[in-house]
Amino acid sequence: MQRALGAPGGRSLLDVGAGDGRLAAAWAEAGWSVQGCEPEESMRGVSRRERPQVDTIDAGLPDLPFADGAVDVVVANFVLNHVASPRRSAAELRRVSRGAVVATTWTLSPSWFWAEVTERACVAPFAGAKLTAEEDFERTADGFARMLRDAGLERVVVTEHGWTWNADPDVLWYSVEGGVAGAGALYARLDADDRRRFRAAFERVVDERAVHGALPLEHRAAVAVSPFS
Predict the structure, then answer these.
(1) With CB atoms 3.0 to 4.6 Å apart as the test, which of 53, 79, 115, 161 could cross-link to 17 if both were Cys?
(2) Are strands 157-167 and 215-226 parallel, antiparallel or unpaired?
(3) How far apart, in whole angstroms, are the C-alpha atoms of residue 122 and residue 126?
(4) What is the CATH number of domain 61-226?
(5) What is the DSSP letter of 132?
């Protein structure tokens, strides 16, 4: 990805949906002048505490507080799959960049794992906000590319990458207790009895599927680069 963007040379990069600032800090270490924006207060706190070299502000899609063409490069890592209006948000990324836009989305995530845990715990699955048919897009590399082109990103190139994450079950459980993603949102809404059943179901699935103490979870992601005009 960095090769596609050219040499940093102190050029400016905006990380939209920067989370805890981990990737923004990596861009900064590579030589970019980085700013992050993150709408979630607790994530901003982690970024500011652990990665003070990155200026992280309170902002998020679909409206960013930057002028047209404010930065050289805009990056949005696994953000467009969470917003209420992917096309409007993608157009906003293009608006604030005078150069390249980089965006990623999941084409395969370990949601099956949490669906199995939820079913075994006999609790109702988390029903998050659903996109309308007009807003949704096919969660494939081609579908992601079509959505971005609809939003006005020209000459967008999308590649798909796959890997297996050998996850530490303890880390997965900490993420649930911390309210991360759909599984965390579900757990936060459960009463004490349902939480005990959910934890027991989690442990059963881990016992059945773990290999040498780790959970092999397959992932695939689409990486889109809309290059310089």
Answers:
(1) 79
(2) antiparallel
(3) 12
(4) 3.40.50.150
(5) P
Query: Other CB atoms closer than 10 Å to residue 187's CB: what's the count?
Result: 26
Segment (H or E) for 102: strand 97-108
Distance CA 53, CA 24 (A): 9
How far apart, in whole angstroms, are the C-alpha atoms of residue 69 and residue 85? 21
pLDDT recorded at residue 3: 66
Confidence of residue 90 (pLDDT cuts 50, 70, 90): very high
Amino acid identity, position 133: A
Query: What's the chain's length in residues?
Result: 229
pLDDT of res. 128: 62
Per-residue burial over 125-152, b = 16 or more CB atoms within 10 Å of its CB, e = otherwise? ebeeeeeeeeeebebbbebbbebbbebe
Confirm if 73 and 14 have CB atoms less than 8 A apart.
Answer: yes
| pLDDT tens digit sequence for 96-112 | 999 999 999 999 988 88
Cβ(82)–Cβ(111) below 8 Å: no
Q: What would the two tokens of residue 201 be?
A: 């179901």
List, for residues 175-185, the tens digit of each pLDDT value. Answer: 888 887 788 88
> pLDDT tens across 153-211, in order?
988 999 999 999 999 999 899 888 888 778 888 999 999 999 999 999 999 999 999 99
